[in-house]
Design a protein that fits this description.
Number of domains: 1
Strand order of the largest sheet: 2-8-7-4-5
Distance between the termini: 41 Å
Helix content: 10-25%
Number of helices: 1
Shape: elongated
Structural class: mainly beta
CATH class: Mainly Beta
Largest sheet: 5 strands, mixed
CATH superfamily: Immunoglobulins
Strand content: over 45%
Radius of gyration: 19 Å
Oligomer: single chain
CATH architecture: Sandwich
């Protein structure tokens, strides 16, 4: 029992050391990841894109492009103070979607862009059963 209790903090420390925190990263998650289509009705899914890591000017106030599984895109533009005078650093971007009531897996991606240049991209899947 004592070996296990000592192993947990060591494993957590090793994971923390292995995490690269010098560069920002974009992570996308869907909630819920699995839902059930009841009588073919659509389900609401919350997509959350999050910038993790340090604040950098490159990731500040990006254009957010949501890319749906069929290839269609929707874009959100940001309107922010200049980086030097910012009072906040937007790190979360959310989109609530109604998933089709068809039973299948779905894939969605999000891109951060600045001046028509892709900064980062992250994808996730969610399923309707």
């Amino acid at each position: 029992m004592t070996r296990i209790s000592h192993a947990v903090p060591i494993m957590l420390a090793l994971l923390a050391l292995g995490a690269d925190t010098s560069e920002p990263d974009l992570r996308l998650r869907a909630s819920p990841r699995w839902s059930f289509a009841v009588a073919g009705n659509a389900r609401n899914v919350l997509l959350t894109a999050e910038i993790v890591g340090p604040e950098t000017e490159e990731y500040y106030c990006p254009e957010v492009v949501w890319i749906w599984g069929d290839g269609t895109r929707s874009t959100e533009e940001s309107d922010c103070e200049p980086f030097e005078t910012r009072s906040e650093f937007p790190r979360l971007f959310r989109r609530r979607v109604a998933s089709p009531g068809r039973v299948q897996p779905y894939r969605v991606c999000v891109e951060l862009r600045k001046a028509d240049k892709k900064i980062d991209r992250s994808c996730t899947k969610f399923s309707v059963r």
